[in-house]
Amino acid sequence: MIQAWQEDHTQAWIAQTYRVSVNTVKDWIKRFRETGSLARLPRGREQPLIADEQAAAVQALVDRLPDATLAAYCAAWESQTGQRVSVPTMCRALQRFDRPRKKNNSRR
After folding, report:
1. What is the maximal distance between C-alpha atoms in the chain?
2. CA 91, CA 71: separation in Å to the nearest integer?
3. Which residue in 44, 76, 105, 107 is deepest, having the highest Cβ count within 10 Å?
4. What is the pLDDT along the chain (108 residues), one digit of tens a residue?
């Protein structure tokens, strides 16, 4: 496909020949220009935002605010470390560090 593009065939011709959409051809050409390859790009983060070395800080946060919501943990984490994290990131960190959120039963 890239060879056809390098031989100055049109994107429409390449799409028809390889039976893909023109947008797919555009995406492949863009990837080839940026990386020099058509190999798949890596997905997701390689390392979690909240590192394993920060487990003690997360545990201290949960101990200090046992009935807080995930959003409250995120806000407290940002004020404590200066690092803004999303609610899903905080949830994954709590799960990774075996710190499930236990709500006060009197609120139910």
Report:
1. 72
2. 10
3. 76
4. 788 888 888 999 999 999 999 999 999 999 999 888 888 877 776 788 898 899 899 999 999 998 889 999 999 999 999 999 999 999 999 998 887 665 555 555
User: To which residue do tokens 């806000």 refer?
Assistant: 75
Cα(41)–Cα(64) distance, integer angstroms: 41
pTM (whole model) above 0.70: no
Nearest to 74 by CA among 91, 97, 57, 60: 91
SS3 2: helix
Write the single-letter amino acid at 26: K
Whether 99 and 91 have beta carbons less than 8 Å apart is answered as: no
